[in-house]
Design a protein that fits this description.
Blueprint lengths: L4 H9 L5 H19 L2 E4 L17 E5 L26 H8 L3 E6 L19 E2 L2 E5 L5 H8 L5 E6 L5 H7 L2 E4 L19 E6 L2 H11 L29 E5 H4 L9 H19 L3 E5 L3 H22 L17 H12 L2 H14 L4 H23 L4 E5 L20 H5 L2 H6 L3 E9 L2 E8 L5 H13 L13
Parallel strand pairs: 2-3, 2-6, 9-10, 9-11
Antiparallel strand pairs: 1-3, 4-5, 6-8, 7-8, 7-12, 11-13, 12-13
Helix pairs in contact: 9-11, 9-12
Length: 482
């Protein structure tokens, strides 16, 4: 399954392969990947082929992050609180893919309810990186990134509230695309932080990401935040012509001299990034350096934690074990809910609920919640001012390749936190944002990200497409180095 969607479609149309053969291959690879990397909650052994039509995705298998509702298929959010939940409806984006003939073959592991960036907190265990099993995939879309990188299928669905599609894509050497907020319906996606939650896709090329989003986008009466994108055709917009486009990067994040005792991996990562800026210039793109107050950059992660935890506390108050999920063992309804939530949630989730409840208390709202809202607005306004002049922001993803599972998984370095967490800006403003592979550091993949103004998805993707064409990482399959 190392071919693109268009290549597979051509083979299917010409009867050189069948949908049944693709599904069989994908299921066999699912078993291998599950044994080696623990990427799946459910493998759909009863997946059936579909008719091959003019729809590019017809007959082709794909994966779904396990926080999307899938009718008749276990949908756990990688949490013990929903370990037996089988929905009676499909998420809108899933239904649209099914209507175009796509075939779901598995549900992928995530950090519990999307609240994590390591791929280690799902109730079925840690997802291992297919390039190096001692490293994480990042999260929360860890299983989707792992499976696409390992060649199980050409694409998988993910969700992104802070960087949950784009950072796993970077760590696994693939493409991760989060469209403008509201381009894709969130109906049927388990809510985490509704003002920042985005549906998106992980693939091995920019074109495949465009094809899949084109198949899913559009207004949904069940999601009032969706907007009319019928005038946008992302796939047809991929011309590769980016002459006279303008990108900027943030000096404070990209200057190695701003970091105390930088690691060798960080040095190499930023060297890679500087080479990529030269590639942009070769394409005819103007690239400039801009400055942002370091205090504002350092506040990004704090703003994210406060606001996302506050929204999560409210969104997940329905997880009581009464309506769905395994019930607690008590005849007292209060004790029943207490047992369900105490035993069902991981320590990480409980900490986030405590933070969310604390910042929402009336005596704390001004100091924490409302201040975070003001800072979010300030950050978005700064970006929108830049987007009046530039077509996009280009930055390296994280501080280098995937972090090790032992020793680094929960490590927070204040010196580099802004570089590690800047992708959250895309969620604060609902901006379209895409990560593409950007070479290797110590034989492990690293990524570069492009973020643009709202509704300018076609422009952002075309710049990424042109840049991808100058590199040699399109369609790559993970090769385990350890």
């Amino acid at each position: 399954m190392n071919k693109s969607i268009k290549e597979l479609h051509e083979l299917l149309i010409n009867n050189e392969i069948t949908s049944e053969e693709l599904i069989k291959e994908s299921l066999e690879k699912s078993e291998i990947v599950q044994e080696k990397y623990n990427a799946f909650v459910t493998i759909c052994h009863d997946a059936k082929s579909s008719a091959i039509t003019d729809e590019l995705i017809s007959g082709i298998p794909f994966g779904v992050k396990d926080n999307f509702s899938t009718k008749g298929v276990l949908s756990t959010g990688s949490s013990n609180t929903l370990n037996n939940y089988v929905p009676f409806f499909n998420a809108t984006v899933i239904e649209r893919l099914f209507n175009k003939g796509a075939v779901m073959v598995n549900k992928t592991v995530l950090d519990e309810f999307g609240m994590g960036g390591t791929g280690t907190t799902g109730h079925t265990g840690t997802v291992l990186n297919p390039w190096d099993k001692t490293r994480m995939c990042a999260g929360s879309s860890a299983g989707s990134a792992c499976a696409v990188a390992a060649g199980v299928y050409p694409y998988a669905l993910g969700s992104d509230t802070g960087d949950s599609i784009r950072k796993p894509a970077a760590y696994c050497g693939i493409v991760g695309y989060k469209p403008t907020y509201g381009m894709l319906s969130r109906y049927g996606l388990f809510p985490f932080a509704s003002s920042m939650d985005h549906v998106g896709v992980l693939s091995r090329s920019v074109e495949d990401a465009a094809i899949v989003v084109d198949a899913m986008k559009g207004i949904d009466e069940n999601d009032m935040t969706t907007w009319d994108s019928s005038h946008i055709n992302l796939t047809e917009s991929l011309t590769g012509d980016v002459k006279c486009k303008k990108l900027f990067y943030i000096k404070e994040l990209c200057d190695i001299n701003n970091y105390d005792n930088p690691s060798d991996e960080l040095k190499l990562h930023l060297e890679n990034f500087n080479k990529t800026l030269e590639l942009c210039k070769d394409l005819g793109v103007e690239v400039k350096e801009e400055s942002v107050d370091q205090k504002v950059l350092n506040a990004i992660d704090s703003v994210y934690v406060v606001l996302s935890c506050a929204e999560a506390t409210s969104n997940m108050s329905n997880l009581t074990g009464i309506i769905f999920g395994p019930r607690g063992n008590s005849t007292n309804i209060t004790e029943m809910m207490k047992e369900h939530r105490t035993k069902g949630f991981s320590p990480l989730i409980k900490r986030r609920f405590v933070i969310g409840s604390y910042v929402l208390q009336s005596e704390n709202q001004d100091r924490y919640f409302k201040n975070a809202q003001k800072l979010r607005r300030l950050i978005v306004d700064i970006m929108k001012k830049f987007f009046k002049e530039y077509d996009g922001l280009i930055l390296p993803v994280g501080t280098g390749p995937a972090k090790t599972l032992v020793g680094e998984a929960d490590k927070l370095d204040n010196n580099t936190s802004a570089l590690d967490e800047h992708l959250q800006i895309g969620n604060f403003g609902g901006f379209p944002s895409i990560t593409i592979p950007n070479g290797f550091v110590n034989n492990l993949p690293v990524g570069v990200n492009i973020t643009g103004n709202c509704y300018d998805d076609a422009n952002v993707l075309n710049i990424a497409y042109a840049l991808e064409s100058k590199m040699s990482y399109k369609g790559q399959i993970a090769k385990e180095v350890k």
